[in-house]
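User: Structure please.
Assistant: Input sequence and predicted structure:
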Amino acid sequence: MNKVMLVGRLTKAPELRYTSQGSPVAGFTLAIDRRGKKDQKKQADYISVIVWGSMGENSSKYLHKGSQAAIFGRLQTRSYNANDGTKRYVVEVVAEEVQFLDSKKESDKSSSEGFGTPLDDFTPIEDDDLPF
């Protein structure tokens, strides 16, 4: 059985890309606090997460640096040849479900920064002036 469940915070905004076939894929790193003894300094693990399809697009749209998220998925390894000719291995979580854990208030605050300029020159239209 290969099941992973993680809760942590994003270290930076997700990076959304598209494959050559047009499939969306988002990638990000999740920082997860590691439990230790009381007198030990806090430590964190940094886990790479890959999210495919519309879930990846939504993750890219609604998650940002510092967002808290729960990831349910599977662990996957892959390898590639580096420029120096050595074979490198990568371990990452392929998300099957992503839950956004920030409150709506926190999410709205971060997503609306730079927006919300009031419209002072708004003129209401009377019902008699509407064409329907």
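Strands lie at 4-10, 15-18, 24-34, 43-52, 68-81, 87-100.
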